[in-house]
Specification:
Helix content is about 40%, strand content about 20%. By secondary structure, the chain is of the alpha+beta class. Bound molecules: phenylalanine. Phenylalanine binds next to strand 9 and strand 10.
């Protein structure tokens, strides 16, 4: 029996030494120390031994068992360390490699126009305000001197949601809102950029487009103030040397009303395909606030006067950036939008 024990010790020591994996090591443990392991079986068979032999063999088996356990333990630690080293070697990270570039979105040209206009008008003391896109008939038309049944309502084909609510056809609705919201009836100087909607269905119009509205109400406001303001606006946006032309027109909420043309910035007024050979491009609607509108919204026309203007942001963006197809403004193709980033990149802080 002693021989058997020593043999087990010798074999297991060799096997442990040769062993290459934790799995193999576990098999060795089972082979010698497991429930049916060689040493376990020897221990079980001790009943057959004599009184004197039993403690001798018993302590020998336990000694060997402990030794094997110790060897297995040491080997396990060694294998684990080797495995870890292997893993560290294969998963090594090169911290000097350049990182992945985070792609940034691009600002939409219409948003660029809005930001530029807001900056310009804020610098002249205006507030930037907004109003609801789902508007009431009252604010979109009635409070702007356009009672129900007025023929001028046909100028703007509207999306009515109910008989009282519609998608606003013009940011002019915000004129009435600004006047009504001013309870003290003090002077007003606002611009309102925003989305507007009309039931246009031809190839050159979109059912949704952007407008910016301007409204100034104060004492002694005259056409000269409107002209000066629009000159600053147009020259800042489209070019310093441009000329403006005021053509008499009609809007129910202004009197007198004008359509404002700008000398063609492509041909300089000589006539080209952009200005349809006229040398002028129409860009704005404007006028002196109609006394009825002042009255209807709580301002005394004897005391106050004002001017208002409105223009399409999409057209402005197209003129400013030379965009020839309006659909490009609505399809959000990143390759298109990216082209407008150059200016931003020039101003970017470089690290
Ligand atoms: N709301 C008018 C339009 O959409 C433009 C306009 C605004 C005209 C303000 C006069 C004054 O056509």
């Amino acid at each position: 029996m002693k021989d058997q024990i020593n043999k087990a010790k010798e074999n297991s020591t060799k096997e442990i030494e040769r062993c290459k994996s934790l799995k193999e090591l576990n098999d060795i443990r089972v082979k010698y120390l497991g429930k049916k392991g060689e040493l376990t079986i020897i221990l079980r068979g001790m009943g057959a031994l004599s009184e004197e032999e039993r403690p001798v063999i018993g302590s020998l088996v336990n000694e060997v068992k402990e030794e094997i356990e110790k060897l297995i333990q040491e080997k396990a630690e060694q294998l684990e360390q080797e495995q870890l080293n292997e893993k560290l070697k294969s998963e090594v990270i090169d911290v000097t490699l350049p990182g992945k570039k985070v792609k940034r979105g691009s600002k939409h040209p219409v948003n660029r126009i809005i930001e530029e206009l807001e900056d310009l008008f804020v610098s002249m003391g205006y507030d930037v305000v907004s109003g609801p896109e789902l508007e009431t008939d009252e604010y979109c038309f009635e409070r702007l001197n356009l009672p129900k049944g007025h023929p001028a309502r046909d100028m703007q084909d509207s999306f009515y949601i109910t008989s009282e609510y519609l998608l606003r056809t013009q940011t002019s609705a915000v004129q009435a809102r600004a006047m009504m919201a001013n309870k003290e009836k003090t002077p007003i100087r606002i611009v309102c950029p925003g989305k507007t909607y009309r039931r246009d269905d031809d190839a050159t119009h979109s059912h949704q487009f952007g407008q910016i509205e301007g409204l100034v109400i104060d004492k002694n406001i005259s056409l000269a103030d409107l002209k000066g303001t629009l000159e600053i606006f147009v020259r800042k946006m489209l070019g310093d040397n441009l000329k403006l032309r005021f053509r008499p027109s009609y809007f129910p909420f202004t009197e007198p009303s004008y359509e404002v043309d700008v000398s063609c910035f492509k041909c300089g007024g000589k006539g080209c395909n952009l200005c349809k050979q006229t040398g002028w491009i129409e860009i704005l609607g404007a006028g002196i606030v109609h006394p009825n509108v002042l009255k209807m919204n709580g301002y005394d026309p004897e005391k106050y006067s004002g001017f208002a203007f409105g223009t399409g942001l999409d057209r402005l963006a197209m003129f400013k950036y030379g965009i020839t197809d309006i659909r490009l403004l609505y399809t959000n193709d990143v390759r298109f939008l990216k082209q407008f980033d150059r200016k931003d990149e020039e101003n970017e802080i470089k690290y």
